[in-house]
Write a structure and sequence with these properties.
- The complex is a heterodimer of chains A (about 400) and B (about 190).
- With about 400 residues, chain A is an alpha/beta fold.
- Chain A is built from 13 helices and 14 strands.
- The mean pLDDT of chain A is about 95.
- Chain B has one domain: Pyruvate-ferredoxin oxidoreductase, PFOR, domain III (Pyruvate-ferredoxin Oxidoreductase, domain 3, 3-Layer(aba) Sandwich).
- In chain B, the strands form two sheets. A seven-stranded mixed sheet of chain B has the order 2-3-1-4-5-6-9. Chain B has a two-stranded antiparallel ribbon with strand order 7-8.
- In chain B, helix 1 crosses helix 4, helix 1 crosses helix 5 and helix 5 packs antiparallel against helix 6.
- The radius of gyration of chain B is 15 Å and the shape is globular.
- Classes of the chains: A alpha/beta (about 400), B alpha/beta (about 190).
Chain lengths: ~400, ~190
């Protein structure tokens, strides 16, 4: 075994395997194979399946993590912060109100530069009561410093959790990651997920060894003491720099993962059907975007010159990349599940801010769709775009 | 190949498992698959829909199935309006029924019937007040559509279910496979 014996065990993955599993289970397998050391979580629909699976692994003896039972999401995040500060690799999963309840400590983890990774199942907020998909729960934490990944299918969930550790634990990053998937549409849908052999994954993702500091009684340091403005400012500007720097690290890690395991879902963003002459671009995210790939095929068959950009990483935001892709386009069509009440879709707001630093001024069409997990079928999305384009005639 | 299978049952009858077993079986034969359900307030006895997609390439669609190529009905007492929606003449309908259930002439798809409830009674496949027809119907779908082999369904079942209930359910799959009848008028 190439792994030192004090790493938590992850049994049952001597060879590459494919499982037909839910998005929740994909995240759980990834946590197990990442040899996570500490898990703390509190169940909430629809993310419960993930921590149930982790709990099964731990109980069955195939996963060597310490599973801390807690009485709330707030405590779960607090436990992760403590454990992560000692240099442990940590994991949790939550959703909607669970995430908002831990929000204070999600910011804390970010501002303390702790590279914990959480699987977030994006779910609507109440009232009215809803358990279905919407991304405001995590996008509401957009400004916290957490790196945020929005996955389009179960394979991407698995791969992204693994890669998130490598990125978050990079010595030039040290920020938490939220790996997000749509409620039910991914979390409860069973689809094939390919997993590499454990030894190959171990080569890709070595043990976490913090280089800055550890919470260690033998080597005491003070955490979170009062910082006067000049020091506080410096710490926050460091976060600004680190999160910007994370863009290149995400690209490098995704390229390395692709080389080793043949899986690539885009890095900061993913394009579909775009070339240098494309005039009309759809921008979307999460599982909706994968269905819209079908819409793009339909529209191209009808003679429309359209392509798709899926914003995979919301923070750090792919601003330069979007400017480059959009510099010669005529229209931009946002289809997103994430409104910022009082303005527009969250990805639209960020994209338009990014484009403002360039010369392109495409006409923008805004569609808030799929709220509460409502189906956005390929046909429906194609129809939206066709109607947008008809208004130009 | 792009097949969209919609399963109709009642909460507690195991339609989610039907969708998973069929997907697992097709995956064993080298297909790309997806199995899911529409989740709401889960109540025993309430009508439920679940879905399986089987394709030659990666499945990109994530929406529910509106125009199924196959519909399988686990419970004969479900309102027809629920499961006949979206059927076309190229679709296949497989109903759990003790006889050739009558449909209006507009329903011109290919039809099959199987007495899955009787099979469940014979095999004592029962949870609380529900007769469990989910595994029988996976055998019936395999027979009626030829989408997957019987052996693949059995292997998938072993993967999806606890070993202690394999025996009865494998028998149910085999009986479902062997006792699925096309409608007299050539299936139409």
């Amino acid at each position: 075994m190439t792994v030192s014996d004090n790493r938590p065990k992850s049994l049952g993955h001597d060879e590459p395997k494919t499982f037909i599993i839910s998005g929740n289970h994909a995240a759980a397998y990834a946590a197990k194979m990442a040899r996570v050391e500490v898990v703390a979580a509190y169940p909430i629909t629809p993310s419960t399946g993930c921590i149930e699976k982790v709990s099964d692994f731990v109980d069955g003896g195939t996963m060597g993590a310490n599973y801390i039972k807690v009485e709330s999401e707030h405590s779960a995040a607090a436990a992760l912060i403590g454990a992560s500060a000692t240099g442990a690799r940590t994991f949790s999963s939550t959703s909607a109100h669970g995430l908002l309840y831990m929000a204070e400590l999600v910011w804390w983890a970010a501002l303390a530069r702790l590279p914990t990774v959480m699987s977030i199942v994006n779910r609507e907020l109440a009232p009215a009561w809803s358990i279905w998909a919407q991304t405001q729960d995590s996008m509401g934490l957009r400004d916290s410093g957490c790196l945020q990944y929005y996955c389009k299918n179960n394979q991407e969930v698995y791969d992204s959790v693994i890669m998130a550790y490598k990125i978050s634990e990079h010595e030039h990053v040290y920020m938490p990651s939220l790996v997000c998937q749509d409620a039910f549409i991914l979390s409860h849908t069973n689809a094939p997920v390919d997993m590499p052999a454990q030894k190959d994954l171990d080569d890709f993702l070595p043990a976490y060894e913090p280089k800055h500091f550890k919470l260690d009684p033998k080597d005491p340091v003070t955490h979170s003491s009062l910082a006067y403005p000049e020091h506080y400012r410096q710490k926050r500007m460091n976060i600004m720099e680190s999160t910007h720097r994370a863009k290149q690290i995400i690209k490098d890690v995704c390229a390395d993962y692709k080389k080793r395991f043949g899986k690539f879902h885009g890095d900061l963003l993913e394009t579909y059907g775009i070339d240098k002459k494309t005039k009309h671009i759809i921008i979307s995210h999460s599982s909706i975007a994968e269905e819209i790939e079908v819409s793009v095929d339909m529209l191209k068959n009808k003679g429309y010159d359209v392509g798709l950009i899926r914003v995979r990483v919301l923070r750090p935001f792919p601003d330069e990349e979007l400017r480059e892709l959009c510099k010669n386009i005529e229209t931009i069509h946002f289809i997103e599940r994430a409104p910022s009440y009082g303005f527009k879709g969250i990805i639209a707001i960020d994209t338009m801010a990014a484009l403002f630093e360039g010369d392109a001024r495409p006409k923008a069409f805004h569609h808030i769709e799929g709220l509460s997990g409502m189906d956005v079928t390929a046909e429906y999305a194609a129809d939206l775009i066709e109607k947008d384009l008809e208004t130009l005639k | 190949m792009f097949e969209e299978i919609r399963w109709h049952g009642r909460g507690g009858q195991g339609a989610v498992t039907s969708a998973k077993i069929l997907a697992d079986a097709a995956h064993r034969e080298g297909k790309f698959v997806q199995a899911f359900a529409f989740y709401g307030a889960e109540r025993r006895g309430a009508p439920v829909e679940t879905y399986t997609r089987i394709s030659d390439c990666h499945v990109k669609r994530h929406s529910q199935i509106y125009n199924p190529t196959v519909v399988a009905v686990l419970d004969p007492a479900l309102p027809k309006i629920l499961y006949l929606k979206g059927l076309s003449k190229n679709s296949t309908l497989i109903v759990n029924s003790n006889k050739q259930m009558e449909f209006s002439s507009e329903i011109d798809c290919t039809k099959f019937w199987v007495d899955a409830t009787q099979i469940a009674i014979d095999l004592k496949l029962r949870v609380s007040e529900s007769y469990i027809t989910n595994t029988t119907m996976t055998g019936a779908v395999a027979k009626a559509t030829g989408l997957v082999k019987l052996e693949s369904v059995i292997e998938a079942l072993k993967n999806q279910l606890n070993e202690r209930i394999w025996e009865k359910n494998i028998e149910a799959v085999k009986r479902g496979y062997n006792e699925t009848h096309p409608y007299n008028n050539g299936g139409k």
